[in-house]
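thought: fold this chain, then report.
action: predict
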Amino acid sequence: MIEVLRAKLHGIHVTGCDLDYHGSVTLDPQICERAGILPLEFVYIWNKNNGQRISTYVLFGEPGTRCCILNGAAARCCQKGDPVIICASEYIADRKELYDIQPKVLTFDQQNRVVEELHYDVFPSRERAYDFRIVEDTAKQDG
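observation:
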């Protein structure tokens, strides 16, 4: 089995940290649905300010709040305002499945509004069996 990227929130900003909460990361369900991230799904979180990398699971917060709250032990890894990368993955059994996966990638501004909606595409090219490109999905930015 090969672990591959399925969805990514790139540069979403931490809106809060709650050390005494049960654990996890609380995210706006509208953002999660747009990216294809599920409640209780395990995700990787990488802090762009300090380089820390953790894994935890997703809980849905209030729709429309654009929240990204690190809870429990995860709250020690970030500070409010830190830009983080949150990735969900899946496992594939055969490399050829890479051609069918098109991970959704959302990028964010300081207020956690979506700036870009992209997807990654793996395809065969003349140079290599598994080539890669980033494709911008048009007319997807938040207003």
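thought: worth noting. DSSP finds one helix and ten strands in the chain.
final: tokens above.
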